[in-house]
Amino acid sequence: MKKTIYIVNGPNLNLLGTREPEIYGANTLSDVEMACDKRCKSRGYALSFFQSNIEGEMVDQIQKAGAKGAALLINAAAYTHTSVAIYDALKTLDIPVIEVHISQPAAREAFRQQSFVAPVSMGSISGFGTNSYLLAIDAAIDSLL
Ligand code: DQA
Question: Which residue, by CA, sits nearest to atom 2 of ligand 1?
């Protein structure tokens, strides 16, 4: 049985903690990774945590999650709203996929209203700050029970 939760993060999330803290909060990406690692371990899973500013590298990691992961959480950041390549990659997976956002895109600019991730996800967790990741880990693991 596969026991690794994959998390893929998109562009500019490497700047968490300093990027628009009024929207994205004070936690850094490594804070998020540590909290996710702890949550996965407490539930008997390992974590693979990845960030890239490059769309194709995200596609490679999504394919790896499909081959080796129990579930995939993805915060595709701005590529959520633009990327057919990420949509196509997610569509090939037969593991649970959960869309994650720190902010609530539905309450923001019009260009954030479209998601190429949502139609190929089991569900979306948005708007809870970086706690969205932990809620999504629980949702992913619960869906595997
Ligand atoms: C985000 C929301 C996106 O609209 C934005 O482009 C991001 C971060 C979030 O986590 O709230 O970079 O995915």
Answer: 77
Q: What is the mean pLDDT of residues 79-99?
A: 98
Is the CB–ligand 1 distance for residue 78 below 6 Å?
Answer: yes
82 lines ligand 1 (CB under 6 A): no
Per-residue burial over 57-85, b if 16 or more Cβ lie within 10 Å, else e, is ebbebbeebbeebbbbbbbbbebbbebee
* Phi, psi values for residue 101, rounded to 5°: -140, 145
**Whether pLDDT at 116 is above 90:** yes
Q: 104-142 in b/e burial notation, b at 16+ Cβ within 10 A? A: ebeeeeeebeebbbeebbeebbbebebebbbebbebbbe
Query: What is the dihedral angle through the alpha carbons of 103, 106, 111, 112, rounded to the nearest 10 degrees?
Result: 40
* CA gap 3, 79 in Å, rounded: 27
pLDDT for the residue 18: 97
* Catalytic position from the list 6, 45, 87, 101: 101
- The count of other CB atoms within 10 Å of the CB of residue 51 is 22
Whether 118 and 92 have beta carbons less than 8 Å apart is answered as: no
